[in-house]
Design goal:
This protein is of the alpha/beta class and about 550 residues long. Helix content is about 35%, strand content about 20%. Strands 1, 2, 3, 4, 5, 6, 14, 15, 16, 17, 18 and 19 form a twelve-stranded mixed β-sheet that branches. It has a four-stranded mixed β-sheet with strand order 20-22-23-21. Helix 9 packs across helix 10. The radius of gyration is 23 Å and the shape is globular.
Amino acid sequence: MLTDIEIASNAKMLKIKEVASNLGISEEDLEPYGYYKAKLSEQLFSKLENKENGKLILVTAINPTPAGEGKTTISVGLAESMAKIGKNAVLALREPSLGPVFGIKGGAAGGGYAQVVPMEDINLHFTGDMHAITAANNLLCALIDNHIQQGNALRIDQRRILLKRCLDMNDRALRNIVVGLGGKVNGVPREDSFQITVASEVMAILCLSADLADLKARLERMLVAYDLDGKPVYAKALGGCGAMTALLKDALKPNLVQTLENTPAIMHGGPFANIAHGCNSVRATKLALKLGDYCITEAGFGSDLGAEKFFDIKCRFAGLKPSCVVLVATIRALKYNGGIPKTELTAENVEALKKGIVNLKTHIENMQKFGVPVVVAINRFHSDTEAEIDVLKSFCAEMGVEVSLAEIFAKGGEGGTDLAEKVCATIENKPSNFKPLYDEKLPIKDKLDILAREIYRADGVIYTAQAEKAIKEIEALGFADIPVCVAKTQYSLSDDPGKLGKPQGFKITVRDLKLSAGAGFVVAYTGDIMTMPGLPKVPAANNIDCDNAGNISGLF
């Protein structure tokens, strides 16, 4: 059996000019990065402005488990399957972060015969967007410390600097550090910390910006510190936002690539869903909606995180109206939610499936609360038995949702034609009545209470003293009436990763909140969630190699 990277290496890719041409994009609107990837020009947006939008399909999932769900694989395969049944679909995905690539999760370009290529480029440096975001963020950090060193005219309180340096890598040693050591010429010593690039506000801003002017305005609105009188200091006061914009001007342009079956894919932006808003850029999604009759996009982790933020943040800001939700699950993962250890998931266990299926039920109900019809996609494995499949089919029939057994990993687009047909039929026969879950004008606590009760199924919210203080400060600054972005474990509907299925009798604990004024939302931190992940005992990086001819192996 071929590995993912071996399958990708054997792909017969079209030159990116041909992929673009098939979408009606001229060469003048293409900025190639080699033969197989390109940026899409700013002028393309205005050229397509009056073109009717296609239908927006969101792919999400149950809570992730060690058994894997294959959400990106289903997303890629669904786009390929749409082409198989004669539909014009464009894929819109996030870019991978080097953190997971070298950590435990691996790449984010799909798997098996449903991948986006060139897989090695996409999972490594791609077109440099992550590096540009990192550089822009760290430029602002450098400006803050330099301002303090050069006399501190803004009277910045060095104990209350909110902006963190970032790095697109898992490095737990950088979570808490001290900078400015080594004498007077090296700056003012202070505590500092790093977060992973995909958790930075600059990443969120890039993904939510409408254009270059909006990008610069959002950068200027970033709350970076408080002064010695407790008053806010925004990025604009430090200068340098023009320089940040210069670093980001090319990164703001979406990237065009293709799937193994040459279906067009736009990959742009990559915020994590457990510590950020988890969706690709607004610009990429809007472009895909103009270029295709169907835009297939995904949101990170389970629907309690990525999908909720897609609806309540991205769709709210961008005026998007999704037509259908594809909810991905595996029988193995549902058995894991039923209490079966990973080592026993290949054995038939109908009772465990029936017990764990409550997780799928909760995610279906949650998505229906947004008024969008749901199709369940079961990423099929060879160990799934007929008895288990029958249980799942009966359950979905009782829930009144379509279900499709997808064999996309093994068969590519051919393995998902049933899913594609059911998605198209659902869009045709079940009109979407999309609406966000809450009114953003509500007080912060009211919005969090709605999310806790309606999505996580908690009994309420507990606030630490630090969280209470942060809420008062944010409200005093006049930012109470914006959406909330919850940073929470992806492994459970609760804030405790050990509680599987559908936890009951618990409350969500909010330990702190941070205003992301440029992005336009408030981040609420729950549980032990960290914004700088660490590497596992045996990192994926240990298995990646490059031979003397430049051939990469070990990526997955």
